[in-house]
Amino acid sequence: MITRRLFLANASALFAAAGARAPLWALSARGISDSSVPSVMLLGVDYYPDQTPETLWEEDARMIAETGFTNVRVAEFAWSLMEPSEAKFDFAWLHRAVVTLQKHGIQVILGTPSAAPPPWLTAKYPDILMVNDQGMTVSPGGRRFTCPTNKVYRRLSLDIATEMARSFADTPGVIGWQIDNEFTLQRWGRCYCKFCRAGFQDWLRIKYGTLDEINSKWGTAFWSQVYTDFTQIPVPLPSNGDPNPGLALDYDRYQSYANASFLEEQLAILRKTCPKHFVTTNNVGAPLDTIDLHEMYKNLDFVCHDNYPGFAQMFIPGGSPDAVATMISLGHDSMRGVKDGKPFMIMEEQSGKAGQSFFSPPPRKGQIRLWTYQAIAHGAMGLNYFRWDTANFGAEEYWHGMLNHDRSKSPSFDEIQQTVKELKTLGQEMLQSSYVSNAALFFDLNSAWATVIQPGNTKLTFASQLTAWYASIASTHIGIDVIQPESDLSRYKAVFAPLPYVVSPQEAANIRKFVQTGGLFVGGFRLGVKDENSQIVRTPLPGLLRDVMGATVKDYMPIYTEKIGVNFSSLLAGPDADCSLWADILQPSSASVLATYTAGPYSGEPAITMNSFGHGKAVYLGADLDPASLARVFAALLESVTIKSSFDVPRGVEVCTRKSGPKEWTFLLNHTGATQAVTVPGPFKDLLTGATHTGKVGLDAYEVRVLQPA
Ligand code: GLA
Ligand code: ZN
Q: What one-character DSSP code corresponds to residue 502?
């Protein structure tokens, strides 16, 4: 029997032997499924035949092909057209659309439509509706309004996915699947209904076995919460008092599991019915995603995400080019980390003004090309632009695609066409390369979730700490992997852990081994406060890592109105910093003091310490430093272990490198609207212009260069 893996491995050879051109995916999957690399780039656009008169499909397919695209994604929101009434399926229209696209050489990624069930379904089965964190049943009429546990919703989602899979398994041109659409964004991924409550109780039975174990791990003696039957266990809905932190953290884990297992049901049927096709799903990346994507993508072929810098422009206070660029790079790096650095795909890339009820600032000339290269620079192997045309109706009328409302070409159309052409000339080898990173940043979901449950300071969020630490490391241009604390750390010289509130024994052991064997570990304030059940440890802080850090937390204080500064010594010498939201006051045992507080009740006491442990060093950053100081401190610490970029880069410009064997591709990305210059270390060939550069390389506003050592 030919397994799927074997098929993918041999597909191109088989096609070649038969004298046929290998389908795009057969080529590209060969690498990805085996953890190496794609050999053909997936370049396409998200297309909505379900929202477009059939008379226009032919013209669309021709234009999509002329633009240089090789694929489209379709149908992820077309449930009501594919199953107009219960168990009456109609895929004829979609087959006609696929045939039309295929005629023009465009291959198709199909979306299963479970993110938006049709009105007949919610009318007949109102129980499938999500209950939000205020206990209110969410109304149909939007999307993602469903309960991930509900059996009826699961059965009906599986039915349509099964029928779709059967109908398209052998359809020429179909290459893969996107299951559902954006499982979670912020808190939307959480449901608190009675089915989730029962599902949670079942999940707890498996996780803990006995009620005694739960009562002890959660500490239910507090507020008279000792459970004597699993069915008594509630979900964290409003209860005139905060929930038990252990219960609330487990509920986050349960919701993550519920979404992942919902996906797995569809995945199993797609694997069985469509063994030739790839299967993935799209999400949005840190700091926004709130479910465990490692769990969700475990059995999928590759990671996909959606990239909208326009949203970052709208919602980041100040919206500076650096801040927006950094937020986007963090998203890419976190998604690349989900499958351990393997190339990922952008399933939706902004192609015009972003918007639902508001418009984002219009992308400036060059910015869409820049954002495209930014994704490639961070490890993308392919990318679909969102969307082909602009809807004249529905909640996303404001979301500009490549065609305007009147079907004229959008201001970005030619830029995208040009970009697609360029990307093809850069060649497959570049897409097979890996992102070069010299440091790792922990994105620890347990700490993230536990900090949402108990922020400690009203203004403190894990997302903003993660982003601030990422931005500070990113400003050194050394390349960052965003990973989980349990990952293999042996490939890094430096590892950073922002707001590491929850530390499990395994994580502590991993960090200890990393430092012992020569690594530099930088841990932020609130290190090791909690165990994995969200109980505060009974030892002095930082709990399990006290010996590694060589310091104890003498006291800790949230900061609201006090003006507290931080004064640095030798290694970190520089201007005093502001300490804003938090101060851990440190008492070194074996560590040396790198900075002290300048005011407040602990004026003169240690704020930052560094300890030699085994062959490595462990730095405790007790203070919440202002961004400029944080960047300076991180640069100094990295330099102390000889990590330094050899490029001299102005603010607002990003430098990333991908590498394959001896070959390197370095991307210079100017995120600012002004001319900039980067000083490069030696002669480089510009792969886009053919020129050779040495010394200062100029970049116009939003310009991109792809360089290779000459
Ligand atoms: C998300 C979704 C798309 C669309 C875009 C624009 O990424 O996946 O369906 O809604 O955002 O809002
Ligand atoms: Zn539910």
A: B
CA angle 304, 309, 315 (to 5 degrees): 120
- pLDDT of 40 reads 61
The yes-or-no answer on residue 182 being catalytic is yes
Task: For residue 27, report the phi and psi dihedrals to the nearest 5 degrees.
Answer: -70, -50
Q: Which residues contact 235 (CB under 8 A, 6 or more apart)?
A: 192, 196, 197, 200, 251
Cα separation, 410 vs 392, whole angstroms: 14
Out of 306, 353, 360, mutate this one to test ligand 1's pocket (max ligand atoms within 8 Å of CB): namely: 306
Indicate the top mutation candidate among 182, 185, 353 to test ligand 1's pocket, ranked by most ligand atoms within 8 A of CB. Answer: 182
Selection from 475, 509, 462 nearest residue 638 by Cα: 475
- Residue 482 tokens, joined: 């965003």
Residue 532 Cβ inside 6 Å of ligand 1? The answer reads no
Point out the ligand nearest to the CA of residue 137. Answer: 2
Test site for ligand 1: of 76, 184, 386, most ligand atoms within 8 A of the Cβ: 386
For residues 127 and 147, give the distance between their C-alpha atoms in angstroms, rounded to a whole number: 8
Q: What is the pLDDT of residue 5?
A: 37
- Ligand 1 within 6 A of CB of 184: no
Report which of 342, 347, 335 is spatially closest to residue 110, judged by C-alpha positions. 347
Q: Which of 95, 69, 696, 667 is nearest to 384 (CA)?
A: 69
Q: Which of the residues 182, 295, 396, 654 is marked catalytic?
A: 182
Strand 692-699 to 278-280 pairing: unpaired
Ligand 2 centroid from CA 252, angstroms:
13
CA of 546 to the centre of ligand 1 (A): 45
531: three-class secondary structure by DSSP = coil
Question: What's the pTM value of the predicted model, to 2 decimals?
Answer: 0.94
Q: Which tokens belong to 592?
A: 């040396």
Question: What value, to the nearest 5°, has the Cα angle with vertex 113 and ends 111 and 115?
Answer: 115
Of 357, 356, 366, residue with least CA distance to 386: 356
pLDDT of residue 185: 64
Q: Is the CB of 182 under 6 A from ligand 1?
A: yes
* pLDDT tens-digit series, residues 200-228: 999 999 999 999 999 999 999 999 999 99
- pLDDT for the residue numbered 184: 76
Check whether the bond before 387 is cis (ω within 30° of 0).
yes
Q: Which atom of ligand 1 is nearest to the CA of 399?
A: 6
Convert the pLDDT of each residue in 489-543 to its tens digit: 999 999 999 999 999 999 999 999 999 999 999 999 999 999 999 999 999 999 9
* Amino acid letter, 401: G
Instruction: Give the contacts of 19 (CB within 8 A, at least 6 positions apart).
Output: none
Cα(660)–Cα(269) distance, integer angstroms:
36
Catalytic residue among 348, 349, 396, 415: 348
- Report the atom number in ligand 1 closest to the C-alpha of 348: 7
Residue ranges of the chain with per-residue pLDDT less than 50: 1-38
Ligand 1 centroid–CA 318 distance in Å is 24
Residue 286 has what pLDDT? 85
Active site residue 348: yes
Spatial contact of 326 and 669, defined as CB atoms under 8 Å apart = no
